[in-house]
Specification:
The structure is a single chain. The chain has four helices and no strands. The protein has 73 residues and is mostly helical.
Length: 73
């Protein structure tokens, strides 16, 4: 969601949200479909207190992948 009092920005966001077109089948810009499912939406505020743990786990996994990939020339 974008909230703005800038008419130009609002118009640009509508075009992007409309898959890049104002008129059907004529695409002015690259649009996107960015619907998220229930799990992706989740509750970010509820997850925020766990962010340091999540980041530590991600770094650990990334380091392990790095170790495993080093065996390939």
């Amino acid at each position: 969601m974008v909230v703005t009092d800038d008419a130009g920005l609002a118009d640009s966001m509508r075009v992007i949200a409309g898959h890049g077109s104002r008129v059907r089948y004529y695409h002015e810009v690259l649009g996107l479909t960015a619907a998220s499912d229930t799990l992706q939406g989740g509750d970010p505020a509820g997850q925020l207190p766990h962010l340091p743990e999540y980041n530590t786990a991600r770094r650990k996994a990334a380091a392990r992948y790095g170790e495993l990939l080093r065996v390939f020339p």
